[in-house]
Design brief:
Number of domains: 2
Protein name: Phage holin family protein
InterPro entries: Phage_holin_3_6
Largest sheet: none
Radius of gyration: 34 Å
Distance between the termini: 37 Å
Pfam families: Phage_holin_3_6 (PF07332)
Keywords: Membrane, Transmembrane, Transmembrane helix
Number of helices: 3
């Protein structure tokens, strides 16, 4: 009988078909590449976390600087109140103006530093994007 195996009803193939061999090969390749992929994803997450920490440090420095300037402005305002009570004349007005200006500058610095603490600055966007691409690639390979 020189008929092909596919010609017989309910016939089982004698050897592993090419499609099954490629699936096994794909699974082997997948088992080799997945650990490598996770290692690279972890490295990317680490790099993004370090960048976020740098942003956090800059935000802390901005908030601390703003708080110091705001404190200096408050001290000058207190000095102006002392001048106002003791002299009832122009020196307290000058101290009041300087104190208000220093407080405005300190408040602006504080608001600028506070923007660094927004949650969107700490989200690992590149890692999440890479993970979704990897997930999609795995789906395409498996199916």
């Amino acid at each position: 009988m020189n008929r092909k195996d596919s010609d017989l009803p309910n016939a089982r193939p004698l050897s592993v078909p090419e499609q099954d061999a490629s699936v096994i090969g794909l699974l082997r390749q997948l088992s080799r590449e997945v650990p490598d992929l996770f290692t690279k994803e972890l490295a990317l997450a680490k790099a993004e976390l370090q960048a976020s920490l740098t942003t956090l440090k800059a935000g802390i420095a901005g908030v601390a600087g703003g708080a110091i300037v705001l404190l200096a402005g408050f001290i000058i305002l207190l000095m102006s109140a002392v001048y106002g009570l003791s002299l009832f004349m122009a020196p307290w007005l000058a101290a009041l103006i300087v104190g208000v200006v220093v407080m405005i500058v300190g408040f602006a610095m504080l608001q600028s530093g506070k923007k660094q603490f927004e949650p969107s600055n700490f989200k690992p966007d590149r890692t999440l994007d890479a993970l979704s691409k990897d997930q999609e690639a795995l789906r395409r390979k498996v199916s």
